[in-house]
Amino acid sequence: MSGFSYLIRALAGRDRLTDNDRALIETLPHRRRSFPKGAQLVVEHSRPTESCLVTGGITAREVFLSDGSRQISAMHVPGDFVDLHAFLLKLMDHSVVALTECEAVFVPHGELLRISEQSPHLTRLFWLSTVIDGAIQRAWIASMGRRSPLSHISHLLCEMYLRLQVAGLVEGDTFDFPISQPDLADMLGLSIVHVSRTLKELRQLNYFTWDGGRVRMLDYKRLAKLADFDPTYLNLIQEPR
Amino acid sequence: MSGFSYLIRALAGRDRLTDNDRALIETLPHRRRSFPKGAQLVVEHSRPTESCLVTGGITAREVFLSDGSRQISAMHVPGDFVDLHAFLLKLMDHSVVALTECEAVFVPHGELLRISEQSPHLTRLFWLSTVIDGAIQRAWIASMGRRSPLSHISHLLCEMYLRLQVAGLVEGDTFDFPISQPDLADMLGLSIVHVSRTLKELRQLNYFTWDGGRVRMLDYKRLAKLADFDPTYLNLIQEPR
DNA sequence: CGGCAAATTGACACATCTCAAAGCCTGTGG
DNA sequence: CCACAGGCTTTGAGATGTGTCAATTTGCCG
């Protein structure tokens, strides 16, 4: 199995891929690397010459403020071309960190440049993937500003449920999601203590279980209602782009 | 003066534009429209066939939750190709609203498609502009999660100061910024009352004045320090992309 | 088995929201 | 030119939400 199969799956969910598109992706020169939990795949203020794509595990974008506090601004699952941004931004404004043990594939920027010169269609699909990241970030902003912690966590779980489905990582109604409460707190913008209390409250509703790093969706519909969840922003529709 | 001069200025700040790039932009078919304060330029859940570019005034992206609350996830100034997203996303996950009286230019998606087929370089610059929007959103997420309201507002003012400078809309140390406190509250994720109190506290520091919709920067350096502001994410550097 | 990070709980402090009222500013119509 | 309406801004008081600190328990990994 190629390191690009998750990516191909994710893109194919948004637009029909030609054989040429597939071939261009599958023949991309790259190197594969593994990272332990907590390792940084890409470091803030660095100037990468390659962009990385998650092929296993869960990664996040993080920044640290000068008082030592941390904020996570995005989570990425297999198939996400996490660091495509760097191809255009050049200088990293954040780090990419492994929230679980994970695996990623690194593609030289020169190859991305070549794709952008040779295949307008694939370029638009790569562009699309960065634009979907932006849509997810806007949804996170709405959650942080206007959802209660209860609703915010619910929204996050609904989102991850669908995103992991795209990657084919949901089995029935369960999926691996071994995210710690400290990491969760840094995503939600809350204290660890409050995350713990909110999860307790949420568990009592029995819309899902979450033990041993594995989530089981018991009542997605009610959870989505509690979260005021509208999946439009995930662009889960296949259409010409 | 063409409706595209702000855009050209913004792009030229990030990479050297060829004569061909300029010509392609300047000859884009388009229509120009004006909007009163409060009008929606693009409506949530619609399926635009054109993308809009702000050429005057300030616009924002907004979403409403089912309880009636509103969150603003981005602000856009002249030169920002606000709705370039829609070219790829197809279905709007938010609205674009005029925070002040404003003017915008609408470009048909067919023309953007043509550019993406004909000019890889300009395509990358358009792509870049959506990726910078994403970087700004990540900075907003960090502000919402981990900055105090005092620091959050300071950060926002530093950001707008630099972004309006790019557009050439800062005169000396002052710029128009006629944003109401209700709108600010919906950006910051706070109540109107708290915004009022925080602004009062901030004014007492004398780092800036803000009367009659006009901001004067008195001590940008101290304000940036209070905000923990690092402009890296705005990509204000000209380099080959 | 031991050690360390994660998760949980309680008590208390503090930040922020809600509600309510008053003052201010601006544009409009008489 | 004035009166008025409506939205914005400010202020106070009290309720609620969330953070901090500290201690305990749990669970995992070496």
CA-CA gap between termini of chain A: 27 Å
CATH class of the largest domain in chain A: Mainly Beta
User: What sequence of helices (H) and strands (E) makes up the elements of chain A?
Assistant: HHEEEEEHEEHHHEHHEEH
Q: Assembly type of the shown chains?
A: homodimer
- Low-pLDDT ranges of chain A: none
Shape of chain A: globular
Radius of gyration of chain A in whole Å, from Cα?
A: 18 Å
Largest interface (C-beta under 8 Å) = A-B, 53 and 53 residues
* Average of pLDDT of chain A: 97
Strand tally of chain A? 10
Taken as a percent bin, the fraction of beta residues of chain A is 15-25%
Into which percent range does the helicity of residues of chain A fall? 40-55%
Describe this structure in words.
- Two copies of one chain form a homodimer.
- Chain A has helices at residues 5-12, 19-26, 84-89, 109-118, 120-146, 149-166, 181-188, 192-203, 220-227; strands at residues 31-35, 40-42, 50-56, 59-64, 70-76, 95-98, 102-108, 174-176, 208-211, 214-217.
- With 241 residues, chain A is α+β, with helices and mostly antiparallel strands.
- The first copy, chain A, has two domains: 5-120, Jelly Rolls (Sandwich); 140-234, Winged helix-like DNA-binding domain superfamily/Winged helix DNA-binding domain (Arc Repressor Mutant, subunit A).
- The first copy, chain A, has a four-stranded antiparallel β-sheet with strand order 2-6-4-5. The first copy, chain A, has a three-stranded antiparallel β-sheet with strand order 1-7-3. A three-stranded antiparallel β-sheet of chain A has the order 8-10-9, with no helix packed on it.
- In chain A, a hairpin with a 2-residue loop joins β9 and β10.
- In chain A, α6 packs across α8, α6 (149-166) packs across α9 (220-227) and α7 (181-188) packs across α8 (192-203).
- The radius of gyration of chain A is 18 Å and the shape is globular.
- Chain A starts with a helix and ends in a 14-residue tail after the last helix.
- The model of chain A has no long low-confidence stretch (mean pLDDT 97).
- At the A-B interface, β5, α3, α5 and α7 of A face β5, α3, α5 and α7 of B.
- The first copy, chain A, binds a DNA duplex (30 and 30 nucleotides) through residues 148-149, 180-182, 190-197, 199-200.
